[in-house]
Design brief:
541 residues; alpha/beta; 25% strand; 17 helices; five-stranded parallel sheet; nine-stranded mixed sheet; GMP Synthetase, Chain A, domain 3; Rossmann fold
């Protein structure tokens, strides 16, 4: 050890140790690039100087509403400037940001508002009916509602609630941000589509958000002043931390409310978008866009895709169009992307299916993850043979703090000193991992996770249903959709349309089965339903 034994006077001080937080990216950007475009959405074009003022006014106004450090502020918003501003303004008053999935059903939204104890909710007028129904179902005290009209999209204020711009006007542009005293303090709360029943509240800390945002700069090979198009919903793992990342590189965030081929091509051609993330369905949309919706552009657009591997045919068609696609993988519990299918020069000569096969792997750990691997049931790493299956596990600073108010689930998720993803994969000889089959009960539809257990529970509530099992059915547009196999009770009748309509009353639209098959369910000797048999049938239906 030598002199290391005596470290007198070498402790942490205010000079050499500052809690890491992505808030620091914005204060730095506003200082260096005050006149550079920070956020763009139609006529809304704000420089970094204007962006930080709006963020500061938001933080001040929230504090004025009684939001204290550690309180939760929720949003039910599409990808509009207010949602980007909330990523900085909410933590700048010491609060925790809870971006709620706009596609959820009222019952789940009510549960989230109760469980997270949101003090304030920022809501787009389009989702006011959803919120109103959720408020009726809440057990706890209702949050203060701030309406965020989107006049650019023709979604105007209803006049019943205070508006977002009015809230900002009440804020003090000189408000001193409440920076974290400890980087372990919570910055965000995200609810995962749990495989059983209620969603779990995933808590992020400032340190993880900072390191994830910084690490992805390396993974995405970003240089200064990228133009980032918001395709990934900002309610999904905080938009994969990309909104926090942009000020670090003096980037411009281009908001996209409605994800259409025309809007994406327009943003690339008119705003010069250089980067976006999205599920493979987005790539399909671009590949299949009619000529009238396409635009010419001369630069390469870098794309992070996740949720499911893009089909080889899609990759083969989209790359010549000017898109370089990198497969990434992660979960809500890992702040979004945590592995990357890092491209290597030795693969440059590969074409067609061989190229797609390399690109379709989920890859290796991103720089902020200490270790990502695949374990067998005994907790040992599987052989790097591309065939032996196991569970993907993560260790590193890009793993959540844990599940809110659920120490048991947190302890289980972190067993053995790694986060257990529940996803099944193989390791290739070059150490790149590839998902073999998703954790059995999860259906990934258009990048959204659907719990088959939740859909089954819903259908079992119908008077005519004796037994049901829900599996993924391959779908050209969405990747996968829920397919229900149902046994009816004796003397009861129900049609496919009946059950789909019933499910639609109780579940979000994307979770509703798109196909119902009436048949006896295959079972093991112990009566367990053999879902692998049903998956085979679903592929043929």
């Amino acid at each position: 050890m030598g002199w290391m034994k005596d470290e007198t006077g070498l402790g942490r001080t205010a000079a050499n140790y500052v809690p890491l937080t992505p808030l620091s990216f914005l204060t730095r950007a506003a200082q260096i690039w005050p006149d550079h475009l920070a956020v763009v959405y139609g006529a809304h074009r704000k420089t970094y100087a204007e962006y930080i003022e709006r963020v500061t006014r938001l933080a001040s106004a929230l504090a004025g509403l009684g939001v204290s450090p550690g309180d939760v502020v929720a949003t039910i918003l599409p990808n509009i400037p207010a949602q980007a501003e909330a990523h900085f303004g909410v933590p700048a008053c010491g609060a925790v940001l809870n971006t709620i999935n706009t596609r959820l059903d009222p019952d789940t939204v009510a549960y989230i508002l109760d469980h997270g104890e949101a003090k304030v909710v920022l809501v787009d007028p389009q989702f006011l009916p959803l919120l109103a129904e959720a408020l009726e179902r809440m057990d706890g005290s209702a949050p203060v509602i701030i309406e965020v009209p989107d006049d650019h999209a023709g979604v105007h204020a209803g006049g019943h609630y205070r508006t977002y711009e009015d809230l900002l006007d009440s804020g003090d542009p000189g408000f001193a941000w409440i920076m974290p005293e400890d980087e372990w303090e919570s910055i965000a709360l995200n609810y995962t589509s749990g495989t059983t029943g209620r969603p779990k509240g995933v808590v992020y800390h400032h340190r993880g958000a900072y390191l994830n945002a910084m690490g992805q700069v390396l993974s995405w090979r970003i240089v200064l002043h990228p133009v980032y198009l918001t395709i990934v919903p900002l309610f999904h793992c905080n938009g994969w931390c990309h909104t926090w990342m942009m000020p670090a590189v003096g980037g411009t965030v281009v908001c996209c409310r409605d994800i259409t081929a025309k809007n994406i091509f327009d943003a690339i051609a008119d705003e010069g978008a250089t980067h976006f993330g999205g599920a493979p369905i987005v790539l399909n949309t671009l590949v299949n866009a009619p000529a009238a919706q396409r635009r010419e552009f001369s630069h390469i657009v870098e794309v992070f895709t996740a949720g499911a591997p893009p089909a080889p045919a899609t990759l083969a068609k989209i790359e010549p169009m000017g898109f370089n696609v990198t497969q990434v993988y992660g979960l809500t519990e890992t702040y979004g992307p945590a592995t990357e299918s890092t491209w290597q020069a030795k693969w440059e000569h590969t074409k067609g299916d061989a190229r797609a096969a390399v690109k379709a792997r989920q890859g290796v750990a991103m720089p902020f993850m200490e270790h990502v691997t695949v374990w067998d049931e005994a907790g040992a790493e599987v052989a790097c043979d591309g065939a032996t299956k196991g569970e993907i596990v993560f260790r590193g600073n890009g793993v959540m703090k844990g599940y809110l108010k659920n120490p048991k689930a947190t302890e289980e998720a972190f067993a053995g000193g790694y986060f257990h993803s529940g996803d099944i994969a193989v390791l290739h000889p070059d150490s790149y991992l590839q998902i073999a089959d998703r954790a059995k009960d999860i259906i990934i539809s258009g990048g959204e996770n659907i719990s088959s257990v939740e859909v089954e529970s819903c259908l079992m509530g119908h008077d005519a249903v004796l037994l049901c099992a829900v599996v993924a059915k391959p779908d050209e547009k969405w990747g996968e959709v829920p397919c229900a196999f149902v046994e009816l009770k004796d003397g009861h009748d129900a049609t496919e349309a009946d059950l789909i309509a019933y499910a639609r009353q109780h579940l979000a639209g994307f979770k509703t089965p798109k196909k119902v098959v009436f048949q006896e369910l295959p079972k093991t000797s112990t009566g367990k339903i053999q879902k692998f048999e049903l998956r085979k049938i679903a592929r043929e239906v």
